[in-house]
Design a protein that fits this description.
With about 325 residues, this protein is an alpha/beta fold. The strands form 3 sheets. The chain has a 6-stranded parallel β-sheet, with helices on both faces. Strands 7-8-9 form a 3-stranded antiparallel β-sheet. The chain has a 3-stranded antiparallel β-sheet with strand order 10-11-12. α1 crosses α10 and α6 packs antiparallel against α8. It is globular and about 60 Å long. The relative contact order is 0.13. Bound molecules: 3-acetylpyridine adenine dinucleotide (A3D). 3-acetylpyridine adenine dinucleotide binds next to α1 and α4.
Length: about 325
């Protein structure tokens, strides 16, 4: 199997960590592109010089010219401003839509057969815009958000229950904003419902529900919690890890079921929008959306989140994108 070519557009905080993870896991040859002169070259060289130590053997290249992404199998877009304290993801809309416009035009021109994973915020709108400009089929345009949001939820559950996070499964659906929907009913520890474990821990149903609600709320605001601490930007290690797991599933055709921002064509009652749902990721990108029954409350929360996504997309269209 020849090595895949993976290009990362935006060599900032997330882009740099992503390049390092992709190289150290030998997922493919990586190109790190940025508009800042020399910076991506510097990061690529720095990562390459760790190859003897971490024992990886792939090529790394920094680039300021889109010609260098030609022939990419996978393109990951992290280009765009991150949040500062007090900002919502949606506050980034105008600035990042302009950036996404130029990125999408260039990816369409130089890497027309690639599978594109978008990370830039506001995520759901940026994926929509990228798809609109490139005209790529929907299986080849997706966004990263749900894996990170689900990992945050799982982490809080593991800490609360004092168990290994490796055994916690929890899923977050919907848009990548404050309306996202952590699905409590299916959160579990090796198959055992997390709610049951909480009720046993506190021997009090009301207290268990209160603790779960606090974890759900923390998950929804987890990005902002980090922005507040970092002060100059947003989370970057965990978004890079989340994206790496998507790349891995595509490169190795693993067909993992991962929550991703995918185009819906009637699934979950949504048509024509990008929303976070579980999907099978394989060599062809999004190979299948995994639909399952939501109860009345979950459905109402998802509908509310979808509404936030459709409002955001409408705002973007009003701005002329
Ligand atoms: P940052 O470290 O600022 O990196 C962004 C990079 O994009 C910078 O190096 C810029 O030079 C570069 N850039 C700007 N304009 C262009 C352009 N036209 N073409 C190519 N590159 C350009 O930010 P970051 O890496 O921390 O975050 C990147 C994006 O990801 C932001 O929009 C964040 O809001 C978003 N983000 C998403 C998640 C999700 O889970 C979806 C999580 C965290 C951050």
């Amino acid at each position: 199997m020849s090595r895949k070519k993976i290009s990362i557009i935006g060599g900032g905080q997330i882009g740099g960590v992503l390049a390092s993870l992709i190289a150290s896991r030998q997922l493919g040859d990586a190109v790190l592109f940025d508009i800042i002169d020399d910076m991506p070259q510097g990061k690529a060289l720095d990562i390459a010089e760790a190859s003897r130590i971490d024992k990886f053997d792939v090529s790394l290249k920094g680039a300021n010219d889109y010609k260098d992404i030609a022939g990419s199998d996978i393109v990951i877009v992290t280009a765009g401003l991150p949040r500062k304290p007090g900002m919502s993801r949606d506050d980034l809309l105008t600035t990042n839509a302009k950036i996404m416009q130029s990125v999408a035009e260039n990816v369409k021109k130089h890497a027309p057969n690639s599978i594109a994973i978008i990370i830039s915020n506001p995520l759901d709108a940026m994926v929509t815009l990228f798809k609109k400009i490139t005209g790529f089929p929907t299986n080849r345009v997706l966004g990263q958000a749900g894996i990170l949001d689900s990992s945050r939820f799982s982490t809080f559950i593991a800490w609360e229950l004092g168990v290994s996070v490796k055994d916690v499964n929890a899923m977050v659906l919907g848009g990548h904003g404050d309306t996202m929907v952590p699905i409590v009913r299916y959160a579990n520890v090796n198959g055992i419902p997390a709610m049951e474990l909480l009720e046993r821990k506190y021997n009090d149903k009301a207290k268990a529900a209160e603790v779960m609600k606090a974890m759900v709320d923390r998950t929804k605001m987890a990005g902002g919690e980090i922005v507040k601490l970092l002060k100059t930007g947003s989370a970057f290690y965990s978004p890079a890890s989340a994206t790496t797991s998507m790349v891995e599933s595509i490169v190795y055709d693993e067909k993992r079921v991962l929550p991703v921002c995918a185009y819906l064509n009637g699934e979950f009652g949504v048509k024509g929008y990008y929303v976070g749902v579980p999907a099978v990721l394989g060599a062809n990108g999004v190979e299948k959306i995994i639909e399952f029954a939501l109860d009345k409350d979950e459905k109402a929360l998802l509908d509310n989140s979808v509404k936030a996504v459709t409002n955001l997309v409408t705002d973007m269209e009003r701005l002329g994108f």
